[in-house]
Each structure stands twice: as C-alpha cells, then as structure tokens.
Amino acid sequence: MVTRTSIHAFSKADSVQGQGVGSAYLEQVALITAELSDEFDIVDRARRPGDINHVHSINPEFLARVPRMRRRGTTLGHVHFIPETVHDSISLPRPARAVFDAYMMRFYRSMDHLVTVNPWFIRKLAGDYGFDPSRISFVPNFVSEQDFHPLRDEAGLTAVRELRAQLGLDAHRPVVLCAGQLQVRKGFFDFLEVARALPDVQFLWAGGFSFGRITAGHARIQEAAENLPGNVRLLGMVPRERMNLFMNLADCFFLPSFEELFPMTILEAMAAGTPVLVRELVYYEGVLGDYAERIEAEAGQIEPFVEALTGILSPGAAQERARDGARRGAAFYDRASVAGQWRGLYRSLAPR
Questions:
Q1: Ramachandran sector of residue 196 (left: φ over 0; alpha: ψ -120 to 50; beta: rest)
Q2: How many other CB atoms are found less than 10 A from the CB of residue 335?
Q3: Distance in angstroms (rounded) separating the CA atoms of residues 179 and 126
Q4: So what's the pLDDT on residue 1?
Q5: Angle at 211 between CA 210 and CA 213, to 5 degrees
Q6: Among positive and negative, which fits the CA dihedral 83, 84, 85, 87?
Q7: Are 41 and 6 in contact (CB under 8 A)?
Q8: Domain ranges in the chain?
C-alpha cells in the first residue's frame, strides 16, 4: 500500500476582511485541493501537524506549534511580507516596530523551507537577512477562473448593467476601478489627483481600513475621504464574491501603489479581461511582464497616468494593447501551470 503525503494548511490570513493575503490563502488551498488531491491528502485549517505543514500566516499560536510540526514532518512558511513592506501599511511606535520585525524574522527562520509570491523576496531575504536562497522557492499567486472571468453572456451583461445603475453611474462615461486597503502606500492621493484631472471618467475604490486607526496615514486619508472629487466613489469593503462584477464593470483597473508584491487584485482584473495600469515597481520584475501598462512616475507625478488612462479608455491601439495584455496575463497564470509548480514543491518537501 502506497502511503500518501499529507499537507496541513495553517492560516488566519482571512480573518481580516479586505486583505489580499487572505484571498491568496483561500485561492491556494482551493487550487491544491482541486488539483493535487490525486497525490496528497490536504487538510485546510488544520489543528494538528501533518507530513508537510504549510503555514500561511505568522500568528503566534502557529509559532508555538512549530516544534510539534517539525517532529511530525516538514514546515513550509508562506512569505507574503517582510519588514520593509509592512512599515508603510501599519503605523507603530518605533520600539513596537522593532519587536514585530524581530518576531517576523524569528518566525521565518523557524521554518524548514519558505515559499514566496515574488522572486524579489528571495534576493531580499538572502542579501539583507542572511537566509539560504536554496531554502526559498517562488510560486506565483493564482485566482480561480470560476470566480473571476469575463461576463459576456446576456445574464452577465445584465448583472453589470444592474450594478452600474445601483451605483448611479453614467452609462456613457468610462469607469476606472482600484481595489485595496485605504493606505498611503496604495497611491490613494495620486488616485484622487488623477481623478481630478479626468472629470469625465468615473473612479471607484473598493476597500477600507483593514487595520483601523493604526493604518499608516489614517487621519490624512479620512480627511481626504470627506472631500472627494465629484467623480470619485469610495465603496468600502466589497465581498469577494461580488468582486468579479466590479472587475467586469470597470474599463480599466488602476493600481498606483508605491509598494506591491504580486497583488491578487491584478490577477483578478486580468482574469476578468480588464486592462491593468500600475506604477512601475521593482517588485513587478519577473511577474508582470507586459501584461499590464507599467508607468514610471514619482509621487504626485500624475501626468503619465493621465496620459496612459486616456489611451486605454479610448478606442485605438493603446486600448487593444492593454486588453491583449490582460488576456495573455490571465492565460499565463493559469490553473495547470501554477498547480504544477505546487506539485513539484510539495514533492521536494515530502518525507523520504
């Protein structure tokens, strides 16, 4: 009788609504459950150790269980962030920040192997924190085509029209969507300035303050939210099961973040066939290719975004190029490709 390897997933990443890390966790577990169950026994939200213990979030209770996990099998830590990528999201006093950073590194060092959604992290962890790069793997995020896809049939088009009417949007004016936590690092203020420069375009932002008042820049964002341009709507938290409708409603997905790794929202937009416009970031090297329009712009430099959006929203070569990029991006990060990468990684970590 052949003994099957068990994969036990541990996470509380989806306990805070509106976080991409939570969405990534749900998608990853759904993917491996659907595609790898022929070879592995997969346990979601596990309570006891397995052969491979895939830890998706750095909760203290999981760190406390590491010794038991390692006695039973292998530990695999999922790296969604490092200190540099957290500092601009959460406002903490300097001493508390130092304690949190040290805890994060302690957690990652307790793992037998690490996996990250961005190859840039491997270089950063190895170069700045002394991790062995041979103990870190890159596997990209993934979104299900069942949850995110173009709505082209009559029922889908009707649902999009109904959402447009529900939001009070003008059917003859284009819609630009951003989705993410309300944070300075997400480029919120540049988003508002671009909207002011394009008054005939309707701008929507889906997301809220996932971390409440400790969100970096909370007071500034709150003040701006009370004095929005007339063509901007803040939607608050949108349930994940409704996000495909919003992605299909949008003529362009615009994410002017200053810091991102591999946002689930970009994958969701591409899966829906929606053109994507982002700020050029070093983190996108090796993951985004030419699937999105990548614009080099400093903070407050909105003219390049205005020019790019004008092209994407107008019939012509720029619009076709952006739509084609989204289609190719969705095809590249397809189910079979990402599932195959997970299968290879888990096989390498399975008990001998």
A1: alpha
A2: 15
A3: 31
A4: 46
A5: 120
A6: positive
A7: yes
A8: 5-142+335-349, 154-332
In percent, how much of the chain has pLDDT > 90? 71
90 has pLDDT over 80: no
Give backbone dihedrals phi and psi of 349, rounded to 5 degrees, phi first: -100, -5
Q: Specify the pTM.
A: 0.85
**Contacting residues for 219 by C-beta, under 8 A, at least 6 apart:** none
Alpha-carbon gap, residue 252 to 313, rounded angstroms: 7
pLDDT score for 89: 64
Q: Cα dist. 287→4, 165, 212, 263, 330 in Å?
A: 33, 36, 31, 10, 12
114, 76 Cβ separation under 8 angstroms: yes
Q: Do residues 69 and 47 lie in contact, with contact meaning Cβ atoms separated by under 8 Å?
A: no
Q: What rounded mean pLDDT belongs to the chain?
A: 91
Amino acid identity at 198: L
DSSP E strands in 209-340: the ranges are 232-236, 252-255, 276-279, 293-295
Residue 13: both structure tokens together: 């990443």
pLDDT at 24: 86
Q: CA separation (Å) from 142 to 50, 234, 335?
A: 24, 26, 7
> What is the pLDDT averaged over residues 213-218?
58
- Alpha-carbon span 234 to 177, nearest angstrom: 10
Task: Please name the CATH architecture into which domain 154-332 falls.
Answer: 3-Layer(aba) Sandwich (3.40)
In 136-212, DSSP assigns E strands to 136-138, 175-179, 202-206
5-142+335-349 CATH fold: Rossmann fold (3.40.50)
Do 154-332 and 5-142+335-349 have the same topology in CATH?
yes
Structure tokens at 327: 């289609």
Neighbours of 65 (CB within 10 A): 20
Residue 84 has pLDDT above 90, yes or no: no
Contacts within 8 Å (CB) and 24+ apart, 341-346: 341/139, 341/140, 342/28, 342/31, 342/32, 342/35, 342/36, 342/139, 343/35, 343/36, 343/39, 345/76, 345/115, 345/137, 345/139, 346/5, 346/7, 346/32, 346/36, 346/40, 346/52
- End-to-end CA distance of the chain: give it in Å, rounded: 16
